Amino acid sequence: MSANSGVFVGVNAGVPITTPSCSGILKDFSSVLPKTGFGFAASVDLGCNQAISDKHGLRYYVEYIYNQSFGSRKGVTIKPPTSGVIKSDTKADIINQLATFNVDYYFNFVDSFGMYFGVGVGYAFFKSKWTFSSSDSSSVVSGKAKGGLAVPVNVGFMFNVNPNNSIILSAKIPLINYEYKTSIAQLQQSGSAKLTTYIVQIGYSHKF
Q1: CA 82 to chain centre
Q2: Domain edges within the chain
Q3: Per-residue pLDDT of the chain (208 residues; tens, 9 = 90+)
Q4: Do the Cβ atoms of 208 and 8 come closer than 8 Å?
């Protein structure tokens, strides 16, 4: 961002890092659930920056992020409640859509380089699917898209090419972990997974 006030629009791409913390029936399968998932993220943002001085100011903007994380775990031995010990390979596919309103404080160390930090408030949509495969069977645990409150912390660095164009390296750190509830129909039991998604992106911002 340059020091001058103005409206800006940005596009970003990066990597989400998703980790689950399971309870209920999903906890019984935690030994085969992937511990971490990586994938892709893309986002757009629109807002304005308000200069307080030549060095610092505030950014107000709305942002929409679509990201999808994939994870896998192979050859782990488990003992489900209704059967004996088996070998199972697991694949996870977690879709997350995040829409937030954000307020950041930025500071330019020099005209060409600065940093920012702030907080966002909005809504997160999750859709999760876990596929369990063994030598003689395969089953899928999934559910409908669900959502809840999202409160991420925003941090980043700004490389100002000129007063109107910037390259931004950013990260979103969730303050609230969304609890995704689902059930396994075959076992007639329910469980939940608290999903934590960190998002790191690089993007381009243009100020009008």
Answers
A1: 34
A2: 6-207
A3: 445 788 999 999 999 998 877 776 666 666 667 788 899 999 999 999 999 988 899 999 999 999 999 988 876 655 555 555 556 788 888 899 999 999 999 999 998 999 999 999 999 988 888 787 776 667 776 767 788 899 999 999 999 998 889 999 999 999 987 766 665 555 456 666 777 889 999 999 999 8
A4: yes
Strand partners, 103: 60, 119
C-beta neighbour count of 38 within 10 angstroms: 12
Q: With CA atoms as reference, report the closest residue to 196 among 175, 181, 182.
A: 175
Backbone angles phi, psi at 27, to 5 degrees: -65, -30
> Helix, strand, or coil here: 25?
helix
Q: What are phi and psi of 25, to 5 degrees?
A: -65, -30
**Among 154, 147, 52, CA closest to 102:** 154
Class at the top of the CATH hierarchy for domain 6-207: mainly beta
> What's the CA dihedral at 170, 197, 73, 140 to 10 degrees?
-130
The closest alpha carbon to 38, from 68, 66, 65, belongs to 68
Give the HSE-up count for residue 88: Cα atoms under 13 Å, Cβ half-sphere: 24
With H, G, I as helix, E, B as strand and everything else as coil, classify residue 41: strand
